Amino acid sequence: MYTKKIEEDLNCGLRIGFKIFGGKWKMCILDAINNGFTRPAEIYRSMPDATLRVIEMQLAELLYFGVVDKYSEDVYPKKTEYRLTNLGKSILPILSQIDKWGTEHSAFVKERLQELDEVQ
């Protein structure tokens, strides 16, 4: 069995936060669900750069940690929806602040990324 070479410090709040919310698309998925895109295909369409497989994998992780709940109707075709739990809703104010920060600093970041592309 694989064991990690460096033990994770789960006494650090930042590391715990990154463990749950640190995936490339997780914050976007939570934002999409909060904005009413609850079915996997809807979430996928709202994030065209992500693959459906990756979205489904990250939804599974969020489900495992209790950030979202999964609801399935036994109809044809099967209808599956995801909703934020109270734990998931608790991160929304932080996501809002990250979005605000990103909007305020987007010009600077885009400029730096363009400079980086020119150097490489």
Describe this structure in words.
The protein has helices at 13-21, 26-34, 40-46, 52-64, 86-90, 92-119; strands at 68-73, 79-84. With 120 residues, it is mainly alpha-helical. The chain has a domain at 13-89: Orthogonal Bundle (Arc Repressor Mutant, subunit A). A two-stranded antiparallel sheet has the order 1-2. The chain is globular. The mean pLDDT is 91.
Q: State the CATH class of the domain at 13-89.
A: Mainly Alpha
Q: H/E order of the elements?
A: HHHHEEHH
The CATH architecture designation of the domain at 13-89 is Orthogonal Bundle
CATH topology of the domain at 13-89: Arc Repressor Mutant, subunit A
Percent range of helical residues: 55-70%
Radius of gyration: 17 Å
For the sheet with most strands, the description reads: 2 strands, antiparallel
- Biggest sheet, spatial arrangement of strands: 1-2
The number of E-state strands comes to: 2
Q: Tell me, briefly, the overall form.
A: globular
CATH superfamily assignment of the domain at 13-89?
Winged helix-like DNA-binding domain superfamily/Winged helix DNA-binding domain
The number of helical elements comes to: 6
- Low-confidence region ranges: none
On the 0 to 100 scale, the average pLDDT is 91
Q: Which structural category fits the helices and strands?
A: mainly alpha
End-to-end Cα distance, whole Å, is: 40 Å
Fraction of residues in β-strands: 5-15%
